[in-house]
Design a protein that fits this description.
This protein has 361 residues and is α/β, with parallel strands linked by helices. The protein has 14 helices and eight strands. The chain has one domain: NAD(P)-binding Rossmann-like Domain (Rossmann fold, 3-Layer(aba) Sandwich), CATH 3.40.50. It holds the Pfam family adh_short. Keywords: Membrane, NADP, Oxidoreductase, Transmembrane, Transmembrane helix.
Length: 361
């Protein structure tokens, strides 16, 4: 048997080490950006101080852990009118805020209902919002984390329905309602919620060459259900960036559109994960108190126009995920926008006129 050629062996080892380094770099930058998670966990966030005096702010998902705490903070910062919306009754949140707020003048708190599984409910909700004299900010927190594959009455996997399609629909339908109060010189703010979860889900967001991309993602197998939350948030981030770009060009839409990442925390939404090893390990590295995430949301919905089209990670602007910045991601963003438009215009006649105002001139 001939002795090994150590030059060839060394070359093979060098290639394998290089491939391993590339793989590790890919995982740490695109699938598991641990630096981002550590940044959030270790952040010491001061309480927001920007006044909401004279403003009207709307919060969906206001009965949840993040939404209810954000609502309390906004009430303490002098908001004039606070609209709490959820599929569940927010009367308890309203009573708690009224009892505990430190604001000199207690806000007018209204409790609304919206079922994110239903296009009709979203339309009725937006119609009610358009009747307001002003709406200075909309914080769209409502979302679900579904561990079992189910379909909505509209025919979509529930994560895709609630976290993406209905959230996008609400954002579109609320655009005409977003009008600044007389005392507010800044543009109204429309804030969507994003998450770290879209990073580990990104390898599963490949698009078929033909057919509907949205249906491809919605028609997932039960085994892939843990990825659906991140996938739905990835779609929403594509949509939000495109919406921001289009409102910048369209006449009649002076609005700041941004995304906020509240970070990871144990909440009623994530508590079912406590029995799973991988989620426990991730949360051990990243989880922080819920109030920190709420601070991020409050800061986002009160932010200036310089955050338009951006992602707020804590109080800083953060870059978009690498997969969205590549040419393939830009093309996929357009595909997501076009398919979403086709789906929503077919099911929601009220949205047709909004899309017309956003079409390229």
């Amino acid at each position: 048997m001939a002795p090994p050629n150590w030059q060839i062996v060394s070359a093979i080892i060098a290639v394998l080490v290089s491939l391993l380094a590339v793989a590790v770099n890919y995982v740490l930058s695109e699938v598991f950006p641990w630096r981002m998670l550590r940044k959030q966990k270790n952040a010491k966030l001061a309480a927001p101080t920007k006044s909401f005096k004279g403003k009207t702010i709307l919060i969906t998902g206001a009965n949840g852990a993040f939404g209810s705490r954000a609502a309390k903070m906004i009430a303490d910062l002098g908001v004039e009118r606070l609209i709490l919306a959820d599929v569940r009754d927010c009367s308890g949140v309203k009573q708690q805020i009224e009892a505990e707020t430190t604001a000199t003048n207690k806000p007018d708190i209204q409790v609304w209902h919206v079922d994110m599984m239903s296009y009709q409910s979203c339309q009725e909700f937006a119609k009610k919002a358009r009747a307001l004299k002003s709406l200075d900010g909309a914080l769209l927190v409502a979302g679900i984390l579904s561990f079992k594959r189910q379909e909505s009455p509209e025919g979509w996997e529930t994560s895709i329905q609630v976290n993406y399609l209905s959230s996008a629909l609400l954002g579109l339908l609320l655009l005409p309602a977003l009008k600044a109060s007389p005392s507010n010189t800044e543009a109204p703010v429309l804030t969507f919620i994003t998450t770290f979860g879209l990073y580990p889900a990104s390898p599963f967001m490949g698009a078929p060459k033909t057919g509907s991309y949205l249906k491809h993602l919605s028609n997932n197998r039960e085994l892939m259900q843990p990825n659906q939350y991140g996938i739905s948030k990835g779609l929403l981030l594509y949509f939000t960036r495109e919406l921001a770009a289009r409102t910048s060009k369209a006449q009649g839409h002076r609005v700041t559109v941004n995304s906020a990442d509240p970070g990871a925390a144990w909440t009623p939404l994530t508590n079912p994960n406590r029995s799973m090893l991988v989620p426990r390990l991730i949360m051990a590295m990243s989880a922080r108190d819920v109030s920190s995430g709420a601070k991020v949301m409050v800061n986002a919905v009160s932010s200036s126009e310089e955050t338009h089209g951006g992602i707020l990670l804590d109080y800083d602007l953060w870059p978009y995920p690498p997969f969205m910045e590549r040419q393939s991601g830009r093309k996929l963003q357009q595909r997501v926008w076009d398919e979403t438009k086709s789906v929503l215009e077919k099911g929601v006649p009220d949205v047709v006129d909004v899309y017309k105002t956003l079409d390229d001139k």
